[in-house]
Every structure is written in structure tokens, then in C-alpha cells.
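Example protein
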Amino acid sequence: QVQLVESGGGSVQAGGSLTLSCTASGNFYPTNCMGWFRQAPGKEREGVATITAGDGGTYYADSVKGRFTISQDNAKNTVWLQMNSLEPDDTAMYYCAAEFGVGLESCEPDYWGQGTQVTVSS
């Protein structure tokens, strides 16, 4: 059974910073990718950033490029999301997600954490 445990959410004023972390535990195949998704009230879930375990390739949503940075420690099965210059529109529940397997050509997470709330006030 795979468990993804997130931490680091909270409340911050616009322009501030937060760092989210997520660690995977349990029995699983080698990590293909991990990432962060978010969902604000009344909105669909959207991908924020992902990182591929093998080559460190990253994806960022246009709305966070230049402000957010995703990083990983494969040995610890941990991924971080450094969020700078936070804006009220970044307010959402942030979910860690992961995909495990080998030889996969894309990142399509199928394991999810419980979520951590990020609130940015103006």
C-alpha cells in the first residue's frame, strides 16, 4: 500500500513564500514521477508542477512559471514545491501525486495524498 504524506501548507500574505513537501512510503515500484496539483473551491483540479524521477524533467503550469520550483530526493522518495511570490489566486488545496513504474513515457499520477491547504491573503 502506498501512502503520500504532505506537509507545509498554511496561510500567508500575498508576496510571501511557502514550501510544500511530500514523502511516499509503502511498497511500490520505482517512482516514475511525482508532482503537485491544486483545486480551488468551484474550480477543476489543475496540474501545478511535476518532476520525472529518472531525468529530473519538470513541468510547470503557465500560471506558476518563474514563481514555483519543484525538486526531489529520489533516495527519500520526497518531492518539494517551493512557492514564491504567492498570489491570492494560488489559494487552493494542494495535492501531492505520484506514479510508479518503469518504462513509462508520460507522467500520469495515480496515487494521491490527502491534500494540504494553502491560503494567500491580499
